[in-house]
Amino acid sequence: MRSGLERGEVKGHMRKLVDSLFNNIPSGVGSKRKDLRLSKSELRKVLVKGAAWAVRQGFGFDIDLEYIEEQGCIQGADPDLISNRALERGKAQLGTLGSGNHFVEVGYVDEIYDESAANTLGLFLDQVTIIVHTGSRGLGHQVCDDYIKILMQSTQKYGIELPDRQLCCAPIGSKEGRQYLAAMAGAANYAFANRQIIFHWVRETFERVFRMSSEQLGLKLIYDVCHNIAKIESHRVNDREMKVCVHRKGATRAFPPNHPDIPDAYKHIGQPVLIPGDMGRYSYVLVGTEHAMKETFGSTCHGAGRVLSRKQAKKVAKGRAIIRELDDQGITVRSAGRGTVAEEIPEAYKDVGQVVEVVYGAGISRKVARLRPMGVIKG
Question: Which residues participate in catalysis according to the annotation?
Fold first, then answer.
């Protein structure tokens, strides 16, 4: 999201803002929202309608849907193919951040590389921005667990030899393949709705802290994009247009200018690409390119990637006051648990600036702006 606020207008309010975000958005392992428990029938609507369900319930505006991948709803979801265990986990977790590397980050634009594209996205130097990173929570995790068991058997059934058991799979056109895609679409729609609700609570929190409406604050959704998903898309392969299933694991879409699947307002610059870094350095906004369509099926990286496992990160962080270290850098952090902050120390990740230079140098994304964190809530 972008705002109409500048860094200087927010700096003195950061502690109150971060505390308010933390209190308003449930986070942490197994976090639940007491005032948003869904019936199974209502949850089924979420799985089919995605972000549109959230907007119809008053969480945001119709205009938001124009700036979400697939307008916040992947077609073909079938709640009947999602287990009762997954539905039970999902009923109480809608509107929650979760744990691990999921976060809400308030930052500011500290560098602009492409003035024209930045203007189109509504970005300017020193502007306050917000990034929300979360997904389908326990529901999506359970869908994955359930179908891994099914696909393990499918691999043997269809005589597929694997170099690694974690690559278990089934032909897309098979019964198992079709069922998994329909269940995964439901989980993706849950994630779209989840982020839409959190975006709305971010808006509400800013309104309370600054005592202004979201319109006065200029809070607008720039873009919402998936990662960890398989999508049926049209691509050119060996000089022939064909439908393919593109698996983006830890990757994100990077469609070029004039692609039919990106918002009209961005047609001439390409799809926004969001590459978050760690909570101590910076994140990037880029746009997709025609070269990405030729080289990577319209894809780019999603983030920096870890260099330390969670266990190693905790070992490195032992005895250190990580929150105080970040506070000394001007970054206010709130977390549901100390363990998460230790696991997510900046040193646990590659320098996202170096990662971005690689995708920029490869021509699969074009740099637009860099964002620096001022306040972060973690699970």
Answer: 302
